[in-house]
Design goal:
The protein has 23 helices and no strands. It has about 425 residues and is mainly α. It is globular. It starts with a helix and ends in a 5-residue tail after the last helix.
Length: about 425
C-alpha cells in the first residue's frame, strides 16, 4: 500500500491537482488496492479530521481578519507605521514590514496578509520609486510574518496534531521569532535600499503626529492583546478567543470606523466561508493521508533512519529542518503540518528536544515555504496581484528568502528564542 499511496500523491502534484484532491485520491487508491480495509473508513476519516471543537478557531480567526480588513484598518496601520519608520533609509520598505508585523496580530494567515495589506503596500512602494518586482517580493516576504506572530491558524492546526504542545504555548513561542523575522527583513531592506538608492519616504514626524497615528491604530493593536491576555488569564480558551476576535472586529467596523454595513458583512461572510471551506477540505483530506502513514509505520521508519545518522539533538534538528524545507517546496502549509507533524514530532521526545522549540522551528520552516517556488502560495497571490511572472518574482525574493532562512537557523540553534516567553507564563518547563 505504501507505493500506491506515494505514487498517486506524487502524480497528483505533478498534474497540478489541488493538494486536497491529491491526498484524498492517493488514500482512496491505496485503500482500494490494499483491499483489507473497508472503504467506509475514507469518509469516516474525512469527518474525524474536522470533527474537533478547537478547530472552530480556524473559521473564526479567518472571519475576524476579513472583518478587520473590510473595516479599513489597513490605512490606520500604514499611517502609524509610516510615522515610526518612514523617515529611515528605505522608508516605504520598512513601512511594509512594520505594517505586516502589526497586521499579523489580526490575521494569523500569510495569504490574508498578502492579498490585503500586501497588495496595498506593494502599490505604495511602487509609487514611491521602488521597482515593481522588489515591491512585490518584499510584500510577499513580509506576509510570512502573519502565521508566526500570534494569533496563528497554522499553530492551531499544529497543536491539534501534536498533544505535546498547546495553542497558547505556541502563540507565545511565536512572539520572538516573529519579531526577529521582521527585523531581519528590515535589515535586508535597508541594505537593498542603500545598494539601489531608495530613500526615505519623508522627514521625521513630530511626536504629535505619531501619537495621532497611534490613536487611530489603537483599536487594531488592542485585538491581539485582548486575545493573548484572555487566553493567559483563563478568561477564555483559544477557540473562544477566536469568537471574541470576531465580536471585537464587528464592534470596530460598526461603531469605530463605521465602514461595515449589511451588504459588506454579507460579502465578508461569503468570502470567509469560501476560504474556510477550502482550508477544512485540506484538513479533512490530509487526516486520511496522515492516518495511512501511521498505519504503514512511516513515522517509526523515519525516526529509526534519522537515529542511525546521529543522536545529537542539534544535528537531528538540522536534518529535520532540511527535510521539512524540501517538503515545503512542494506541499502547502496546512497539509504539510497534518502529514509531517505525526511523523516528526515524536523525535522531540526521542532525542530530548523541547516540544515547543521543535514545533516553532517546523512552523517557521513551513511558513517560509510559502515564498519558495514551485508551490509557494504567497508567491502565487502576489504574482496575480502584481501581474508579474512567477519566475521574475521568485528571482526578486531570493535575498529576502535568505534573510528568513538566517532567522530559521537562529531559531533552530537557540531554543531560548522559542521557549523563553512561554516559560514566563508557565507553558515551557
Amino acid at each position: 500500500m505504501t507505493a500506491p499511496l506515494f505514487i498517486v500523491f506524487a502524480v497528483g502534484l505533478i498534474l497540478g491537482l489541488p493538494i486536497a484532491f491529491a491526498m484524498g485520491g492517493a488514500g482512496l487508491v491505496a485503500l482500494t488496492i490494499e483491499g483489507k480495509l473497508s472503504l467506509l473508513s475514507v469518509p469516516q476519516r474525512f469527518f474525524d479530521g474536522i470533527n474537533s471543537f478547537p478547530l472552530m478557531a480556524v473559521p473564526f480567526f479567518i472571519l475576524a481578519a476579513d472583518l478587520m480588513t473590510a473595516s479599513g484598518i489597513t490605512t490606520a496601520l500604514l499611517r502609524f507605521s509610516n510615522s515610526l519608520v518612514g523617515h529611515i533609509r528605505g522608508g516605504m520598505g520598512h513601512v511594509n514590514v512594520v505594517t505586516s508585523m502589526m497586521f499579523a496580530g489580526v490575521s494569523g494567515s500569510a495569504l490574508a496578509d498578502a492579498a490585503g495589506p500586501g497588495a496595498v503596500e506593494m502599490r505604495m512602494m511602487t509609487k514611491s520609486g521602488y521597482d515593481k518586482p522588489y515591491s512585490a517580493a518584499l510584500s510577499a516576504a513580509t506576509a510570512t510574518i502573519g502565521p508566526i506572530i500570534p494569533p496563528s491558524i497554522i499553530m492551531v492546526i499544529y497543536a491539534l496534531t501534536d498533544s505535546r504542545v498547546t495553542v497558547a504555548g505556541l502563540f507565545l513561542a511565536g512572539v520572538v521569532p516573529g519579531l526577529l523575522l521582521g527585523l531581519a527583513l528590515m535589515g535586508m531592506n535597508h541594505w537593498i535600499s542603500v545598494q539601489r538608492g531608495y530613500g526615505a519616504a519623508h522627514e521625521r514626524m513630530g511626536w504629535r503626529e505619531r501619537l495621532g497615528a497611534l490613536w487611530k491604530a489603537t483599536p487594531v493593536l488592542l485585538m491581539p492583546l485582548i486575545i493573548i491576555a484572555g487566553i493567559l488569564t483563563g478568561l477564555f480558551t483559544p477557540t473562544e478567543a477566536s469568537a471574541v476576535a470576531v465580536f471585537y472586529a464587528l464592534l470596530i467596523g460598526l461603531f469605530v470606523t463605521r465602514t461595515l454595513n449589511g451588504p459588506i458583512i454579507a460579502k465578508v461572510l461569503l468570502q470567509s466561508g469560501l476560504v474556510t471551506s477550502a482550508a477544512l477540505l485540506i484538513v479533512s483530506m490530509a487526516s486520511l493521508f496522515a492516518w495511512l502513514l501511521t498505519l504503514l509505520q512511516i513515522p517509526q521508519a523515519i525516526a529509526s533512519a534519522i537515529g542511525t545518522l546521529t543522536t545529537e539533538p542539534v544535528a537531528i534538528m538540522l536534518i529535520v529542518m532540511v527535510f521539512v524545507l524540501i517538503c515545503g517546496l512542494f506541499i502547502d502549509t496546512l497539509p504539510a503540518v497534518i502529514i509531517l507533524v505525526p511523523v516528526l514530532a515524536p523525535l522531540s521526545d526521542q532525542f530530548g528536544i523541547h516540544p515547543l522549540h521543535f514545533a516553532m522551528a517546523i512552523v517557521l520552516n513551513l511558513t517560509i515555504g510559502l515564498i519558495t517556488p514551485p508551490v509557494g502560495g504567497v508567491l502565487f497571490v502576489m504574482s496575480t496581484v502584481s501581474r508579474l511572472r512567477l519566475e521574475v518574482l521568485s528571482k526578486a525574493i531570493l535575498p529576502l528568502l535568505a534573510a528568513e532562512l538566517v532567522v530559521l537557523l537562529a531559531v533552530v540553534l537557540m531554543p531560548q528564542l522559542s521557549t523563553t516567553v512561554p516559560a514566563w507564563f508557565g507553558y515551557a518547563r
